[in-house]
């Protein structure tokens, strides 16, 4: 009988993670003898958990908040995306070496390729937010060759810091300048939770965007954010954040279990039912 392959997602807290639903669905639909479990790891226990991986019996796993950045410092090898983004979301073993990668940017790109395939030829992208999630989006946009990226953030210094980190092509702008930038931005990506649960006010008025603009919100709780609702009402193309979540899971599953899984409407429906 085939040995059961074990994978995990670590975070703190971890109960909210939908990754077990995604990987559990793929394991079952491919008839793979494997498990994917949530493990709550407190920050003080992260180093021990990671360094122990070669002896743990796990084939690998995912890393989520608050461990993505710290994990960069604890692995033996980083892939190019993890190095550029400064965060690890996927771990695997190669011989005795602990390897860390980041699939968030690739997941974002793969989902847009499905739902808004013209995104790669955007002339100017407007990115809202300069936190951890924003770094993956900036990596995806620069890798796709989008030459003009406008980054706005409530705390301007964080936007400046990221524009320096990622180099040419990304200009930091002030939060209150969002609407001035909108009329010449044909791709908008919101990486913040602003406007949800009474937190702050969305600085972007979708009426300012060109008619061919695509609006992406990488937040997926709720699936239809106020920003996406307003953009759809104006007839703009919209993309929610669930597809990125599903697509970022594909490379990890393939590495651990040896099968490249598909992102299907059925899988999407299972996660939507859980949101
Ligand atoms: P994540 O990993 O989800 O990106 P984060 O690193 O905490 O989380 O970043 C959150 C982002 O949302 C930041 O860009 C933050 O702006 P600041 O850098 O000014 O903190 C932004 N954000 C969160 N709440 C906000 C609000 N009420 N108004 C404006 N921006 C907000």
Please describe the topology of this protein:
Layout: E1 5-11, H1 19-29, E2 34-40, H2 46-51, E3 58-63, H3 68-72, E4 77-78, H4 80-85, E5 90-94, E6 97-101, H5 104-115, E7 124-128, H6 132-143, E8 148-153, H7 156-166, E9 170-174, H8 178-182, E10 187-190, E11 214-217, H9 226-233, E12 237-239, H10 242-248, H11 250-257, H12 265-272
Parallel strand pairs: 1-2, 1-3, 4-6, 7-8, 7-10, 8-9, 10-11, 11-12
Antiparallel strand pairs: 3-5, 5-6
Bound molecules: 2'-monophosphoadenosine-5'-diphosphate (ATR).
2'-monophosphoadenosine-5'-diphosphate (ATR) binds next to helix 6.
Overall number of strands:
12
Question: CATH topology of the largest domain, what is it called?
Answer: Rossmann fold
Which small-molecule species are bound to the chains here?
2'-monophosphoadenosine-5'-diphosphate
Outline: globular
CATH superfamily of the largest domain: NAD(P)-binding Rossmann-like Domain
Percent range for β-strand residues: 15-25%
Radius of gyration over C-alpha positions, nearest whole angstrom: 19 Å
- What is the helix/strand order? EHEHEHEHEEHEHEHEHEEHEHHH
Helix count, DSSP H or I runs of 4 or more residues: 12
Largest sheet: 6 strands, mixed
Q: Which consecutive residue ranges, at least 5 long each, have pLDDT under 50? A: none
* Gap from first CA to last CA: 36 Å
Proportion in helices: 25-40%
Read across the widest sheet, the strand sequence of neighbours is 2-1-3-5-6-4
Task: Provide a descriptive summary of the structure in words.
This protein is α/β, with parallel strands linked by helices. The protein folds into two domains: 123 residues, Leucine Dehydrogenase, chain A, domain 1 (Rossmann fold, 3-Layer(aba) Sandwich), CATH 3.40.50.10860; 138 residues, Rossmann fold (3-Layer(aba) Sandwich), CATH 3.40.50.720. It is built from twelve helices and twelve strands. The protein has a six-stranded mixed β-sheet. Helix 9 links the parallel strand 11 and strand 12. The longest helix has 12 residues. The two termini are 36 Å apart. 43% of the residues are buried. The model has no long low-confidence stretch (mean pLDDT 97). The structure holds 2'-monophosphoadenosine-5'-diphosphate (ATR). 2'-monophosphoadenosine-5'-diphosphate binds next to helix 6. Homodimer. Involved in the biosynthesis of the chorismate, which leads to the biosynthesis of aromatic amino acids. Catalyzes the reversible NADPH linked reduction of 3-dehydroshikimate (DHSA) to yield shikimate (SA). Its EC number is 1.1.1.25.
